[in-house]
Amino acid sequence: MLVAVLPVPVTYGLAWLGAEIAFRLATGARAAATANLRRVLGPEATRRDLARAVQGAFRTQAYNYVDMFLMPRVSLDALEQRVDIVNGERYRGAHALGKGMVLTTAHHGNFDLLVQVSLAMGIPVTVLMERISPDPLFRFVAGLRGSHGMRLLPVGPKAVRELLRALHRGEVAAVVADRDPQGRGVEVTYFGEKARLPAGPVELAMRTGAPLVPTFGLRLPGRRYRIIVEPPLELETEGPEHELVARNVQKLAAVLERHIRAYPEQLVMFSPIWPDSAATGEGAAASAARAVGIGR
Fold first, then answer.
1. Quick check: helix, strand or coil at residue 222?
2. Would the pLDDT of 249 be above 60?
């Protein structure tokens, strides 16, 4: 594979070129990203602002792919040297409680980076990963991401049991908080509009007592990264369970919003978050066009 043999600057240059091509040709992904980022940027954003953010998202994702392919070649020590950790003591402190830890984040920046740095700290991680078809591709990607010892679980009935076992062993269970592929999440207000977000991170923390720690990995210039560790989310505990879950997911959504708004061009979400961003009889591109005000 070219990424494995080419100089790193060349691979990033090719990724930039690939992102530019994808931005122009991947109309479905561009439509979904455009509709999503319109909510993030708000009505005051210009069309140029929006297009710049969407283009940045394609570039961020392309660079993430390069990082994934390079993962087996990069030692954890070398990776740590390129990472600035903000409030790293929160991460170690939450893990030191001995209840395991639920690490949650968004499809924002380089989210693979978070778990790799955890491994560098000597803290084992089990990651819930959406299944990719066909199976050989899933195994290939899982092999790249898990090259330093991270354990990956495909989404499915057995995954929850395995995540619970990992937490009971005092390990980290990593679950993203902004995509609900199985449609079992809860409806919350997200960037001012109703959206369905997954309840998994909150439910794991409520069920086990493990701290729920929102953490974000940002790309910086010069192939450097910044990890920002939020305080463990203060979960509400009084009331009917289904209401508690919804209220706690809403609290988590507010944390996600704050970080995504700061770096919207690093939101690498290329599937619809809000219902009216999904493909309808008129197609995803038409839906996105309405969302961004094209054709008024």
1. coil
2. yes
278 is in which domain, residue-wise? 2-292
Q: How far apart are CA 106 and CA 179, in angstroms?
A: 8
Q: Which helix (H) or strand (E) holds 129?
A: strand 125-129
Residue showing tokens 């009971």: 168
Q: At what angle do helices 200-208 and 157-168 cross, to 10 degrees?
A: 40
Distance CA 72, CA 79 (A): 11
Q: Measured between alpha carbons, how far is 159 from 145 in angstroms, rounded to an integer?
A: 18
Residue 183 has a pLDDT of 77
Q: Is 214 exposed, middle or buried (0-12, 13-18, 19+ CB in 10 A)?
A: buried
DSSP, collapsed to helix, strand or coil, labels residue 200 as helix
* 40-44, 185-189, 281-285: the lowest-pLDDT one: 281-285
Structural tokens at position 143: 């092999």
Sign of the C-alpha dihedral computed for residues 88, 89, 94 and 100 taken in this order: positive
For helices 200-208 and 241-262, what crossing angle results, to 10°? 130
- Residue 284 carries which side chain, given as an amino acid letter? A
Average pLDDT score over residue span 86-112: 95
Helix H or strand E encompassing 104: strand 101-105
For the chain, counts of helices (H) and of strands (E) = 12, 9
**Given pLDDT bands bounded at 50, 70 and 90, which one contains residue 63?**
very high
pLDDT confidence bin for 289, thresholds 50/70/90: very low
> Closest Cα partner for 109 from 270, 271, 256, 219?
219
| Number of domains present in the structure of the chain | 1
DSSP 8-state class, residue 231: P
Distance of CA 34 to the CA centre of its chain: 17
Number of CB atoms found within 10 A of residue 28's CB: 15
- What pTM did the predictor assign? 0.88
Tell whether the model's pLDDT for residue 3 goes beyond 70: no
Give which of 269, 272, 287, 226 is closest to 57, Cα–Cα: 269
